[in-house]
C-alpha cells in the first residue's frame, strides 16, 4: 500500500496519541477522527504501517511504561497500575503476567537489584585488580609498568 507523506504524518501523530496515557482515555474512534480517517480506515492503515492494531499498540505502550516504573522501584504495583491508566489491579496484573511472564511484584523484585543509582557503580562491576590498586597508598607504584 502506497502511503502519501501527509497520511503517514497523521498516522504517526495517532501513534503518539496512543502512547500517551491521558486522564480520560481517548477512544480509537476519537483518534481516527483526530487524524481525519474513518475508524475502519484508521485501524487498517495503522496496522499496515506499524504492524499491530492501535489497541495492541496502546496496550504495549502502557506495559512498557509499567515495566519502566516497576524497574525504578519507587512505585508500588497499585500506583503503577493507576499511573498507566488501568482501573483494575487484577486485570493489570493478569495482563502484565501474561505478556511479561512474571507478576508485577516479582518483576519489580527481580529488577530492583539490577537498576543502578545514577553516579554510583556497584563494586562487582569493576575488575578485582582495580580495587586492589585503588587500595594502595599514593606513590606506591612508580610507573604504569610496575602495576
Summary, kept brief:
By secondary structure, the protein is mainly alpha-helical. The protein has helices at about 5-20, 30-35, 40-50, 55-70, 75-85, 90-100, 105-110, 130-135. Keywords: DNA-binding, Transcription, Transcription regulation.
Total helical segments: 8
What radius of gyration results from the CA coordinates?
Answer: 24 Å
What top-tier CATH class of the domain at 1-51 fits best?
Mainly Alpha
Helical percent range? Answer: 55-70%
Structural class assignment: mainly alpha
Uncertain segments are none
How far apart are the termini? 64 Å
Describe this structure in words.
- This is AraC family transcriptional regulator.
- This protein is an all-alpha fold and 147 residues long.
- It has a domain of 51 residues: Arc Repressor Mutant, subunit A, CATH 1.10.10.
- It is 60% helix and 0% strand.
- The chain is elongated, with a radius of gyration of 24 Å.
- The mean pLDDT is 80.
Amino acid at each position: 500500500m502506497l502511503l502519501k507523506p501527509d497520511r503517514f504524518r497523521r498516522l504517526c501523530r495517532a501513534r503518539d496519541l496512543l502512547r500517551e496515557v491521558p486522564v480520560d482515555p481517548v477512544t480509537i474512534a476519537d483518534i481516527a477522527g483526530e487524524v481525519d480517517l474513518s475508524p475502519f480506515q484508521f485501524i487498517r492503515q495503522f496496522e499496515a504501517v506499524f504492524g499491530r492494531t492501535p489497541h495492541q499498540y496502546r496496550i504495549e505502550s502502557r506495559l512498557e511504561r509499567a515495566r519502566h516504573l516497576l524497574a525504578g522501584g519507587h512505585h508500588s504495583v497499585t500506583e503503577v497500575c493507576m499511573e498507566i491508566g488501568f482501573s483494575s489491579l487484577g486485570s493489570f496484573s493478569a495482563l502484565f503476567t501474561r505478556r511479561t511472564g512474571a507478576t508485577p511484584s516479582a518483576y519489580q523484585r527481580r529488577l530492583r537489584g539490577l537498576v543502578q543509582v545514577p553516579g554510583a557503580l556497584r563494586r562487582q562491576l569493576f575488575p578485582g585488580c582495580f580495587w586492589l590498586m585503588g587500595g594502595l597508598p599514593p606513590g606506591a607504584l612508580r610507573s604504569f609498568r610496575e602495576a
